Amino acid sequence: MQRISRLGLGLRLGLRNFSTSSIIRNATTFGEVANNNSTKSNNKKNSIKQVKDIVTIKNILHCNFKKNNTFLTLTRVEMDKNFQETHSKLSFNEQVLYYLSLPQKISISQSTGYLGFRKAQRGEYEASFQLSSNIFKIINDKKLIKNDKLEIVIKGFGKGRSAFFDALKGKEGNEIRKFITKLSDLTPISFGGNRAPSRRRI
């Protein structure tokens, strides 16, 4: 009897050692394979959708005229044609906000100090005139204006303001004037508020 019981235990242990339950547990099922294929296909679709098709709509020349300096910056307004497809989860209002405030990228930015003018010379007429003519030349040589649309935005008063317009109306701006579609003045006008400081008298 003892021998028979021992043989029975040995058979049980042998069956446990040769059982395939652990292999079956570790094996991949059909459902897991199907889910992996579906996730891969979704990732491929998302990667295809996220391709951007960026187009330049217009160019804006920002002119900031200060008392002691002049800053000219040319930017290009870009729009993604596939924005609605790549951002389909956004609400209607969020999509409208994107088109109302399209991103701008700087093409070129210079000031009078870039041409070698220092201290008080930066606020003079000649410095702004040379800066304007230099910007116009770079824009024409490198063909930075795309889509043949240029918008000029002016801000501030100073000697550089008249110098910029003189350069634009002269021979320096012959190749630039044909691209201008809009001219706007964003100079803030003070209304009310605190009393302004008295002017300096020499």
TrEMBL record:
<protein>
    <recommendedName>
        <fullName>Small ribosomal subunit protein uS11m</fullName>
    </recommendedName>
</protein>
<keyword id="KW-0496">Mitochondrion</keyword>
<keyword id="KW-0687">Ribonucleoprotein</keyword>
<keyword id="KW-0689">Ribosomal protein</keyword>
<dbReference type="GO" id="GO:0005739">
    <property type="term" value="C:mitochondrion"/>
</dbReference>
<dbReference type="InterPro" id="IPR001971">
    <property type="entry name" value="Ribosomal_uS11"/>
</dbReference>
<comment type="function">
    <text>Component of the mitochondrial ribosome (mitoribosome), a dedicated translation machinery responsible for the synthesis of mitochondrial genome-encoded proteins, including at least some of the essential transmembrane subunits of the mitochondrial respiratory chain. The mitoribosomes are attached to the mitochondrial inner membrane and translation products are cotranslationally integrated into the membrane.</text>
</comment>
<comment type="similarity">
    <text>Belongs to the universal ribosomal protein uS11 family.</text>
</comment>
<dbReference type="GO" id="GO:0003735">
    <property type="term" value="F:structural constituent of ribosome"/>
</dbReference>
<dbReference type="GO" id="GO:1990904">
    <property type="term" value="C:ribonucleoprotein complex"/>
</dbReference>
<dbReference type="InterPro" id="IPR036967">
    <property type="entry name" value="Ribosomal_uS11_sf"/>
</dbReference>
<dbReference type="Pfam" id="PF00411">
    <property type="entry name" value="Ribosomal_S11"/>
</dbReference>
<dbReference type="GO" id="GO:0006412">
    <property type="term" value="P:translation"/>
</dbReference>
<dbReference type="GO" id="GO:0005840">
    <property type="term" value="C:ribosome"/>
</dbReference>
